[in-house]
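Forwarding these from the shared drive since the link keeps breaking.
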Amino acid sequence: MSFGTAVYVACALLSATCAWLLLRAWIRGREKLLLWSGLCFIGIAANNVLLFVDLRILTQIDLSIVRMIPSLAGIGVLIFGLVWETR
């Protein structure tokens, strides 16, 4: 495994772990900001997985647009949650 591959895998695992911890804390405390943050990290983790697939597995196909969709959705959910909670 090359160093780049290890970094991609580590980033995906770390963001998935953050999502899991945030959502687990949300289940315990029902703080809505934890929910929005957890959902955002799910999108970031999906982006990291798609980045690995794009750059290491499917090297002939450009998935740059496809891999941006989960991260944009995650950031969009977080922004929506932040705006919703300030009302």
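-- next protein --
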Amino acid sequence: MSRSDELFEEARKVVPGGVNSPVRAFGAVGGVPRFIVQGSGAWIEDADGQRYVDYVQSWGALLFGHARREIVEAAVEAARRGTSFGAPTELEVRMAERIAAMFPSIEEVRLVSSGTEACMSAVRLARGATGRAKLLKFDGCYHGHVDALLAKSGSGVATFGLPGTMGVTPGATADTLVAPYNDVEAVNEAFSALGEQIAAVIVEPVAANMGVIPPEEGFLDGLRSVTAEHGALLIFDEVITGFRVAAGGAQELYGVLPDLTCLGKVMGGGFPCAGFGGRRALMEQLAPSGPVYQAGTLSGNPVAVAAGLAALKLIDRQGPYPELRRGAETLVEGLAKAFADAGIPSAVNRVESLFSLFFTGGAVRNHADAGASDHGRYARFFHGMQGEGIYLPPSGYEAWFLSTAHGDEAIGRTLEAAQRVARAIG
């Protein structure tokens, strides 16, 4: 029995399912999760001393790889001054200033501790500012484990949401509408019927929680137009895309500006730090300036903010996006060739350094397409690659993430392994 096996057995006695976030349990691929003891750059090491090239990178938070020196040093220095105050610090101001400078739609930002908290708060602000109750989201987009956002679609197009998990009541999702991703017509139909009741549309501008699915031409522009026409707000959940696909997120990449933006992951440099922001008049509706209440003891935590500021300064200094794009292009082209050579139908969706693999012969443009791909084959590919020392997301519905630490050696090793594993599972 490996040390990871032993730890998993121990964990299941005291932690539900043995993990503190469900995807970590390997339920989608089978087997026992690896317990990680350390990471450096593109690599992680498990409790048994096995090393892996890591394409999870803390689910996208680590733009510069594990244990980047400048980020670690900033966090350590901040921790020496005190780990939490529950009072304002100068670093919070500097973080907000930098975010506002990088994101074209943001004038003010409120810091929180997680992407879930950012999305929950942005939705509350949208409802408070518009005086409306209903919210439209997209099937397969994940905005954290907020009751109203854990809604799945019904049997038609743009249906009222149904509870997506036990513990979420029908009442909690009664004001949530769910439409297919990339379907502007479904959104227009919803607004034609209920436009004066819809407070906001919330969307991942690049879907990355059903695998990576890019927005089709006209989709984001269509959302911007219909919300503006009906006096609703457009919320971009850029928890994943923010600072990853561009310094100013997907809104910079696609030239569509939302009313509110939710951020997380990269902005914390590997620490729990998130935020949501928008134009000043809207953000001033938040307490203590306005009537919409939101608060958090650890919001703007000085250690997390120091680490995040170090990460954002590295973005300014290094301009990492061309390097990340080149690495992702090399990987995607190499993976496509490996599967073609093995006679395996596949599609690899990519936006900048954000990409994912689907074992399917057709295009993947929404949640239904992602669900129809061969997830059993993905599980076999996952375990084959793990045996080769390559650590992939343990679900075919998840994105892969590159860091600047993934150099030619790591990428070359990955593609050589993919060729061998593709032949084995073909």
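The chain has two domains: 3-63+320-425, 69-318. The mean pLDDT is 96.

- D.
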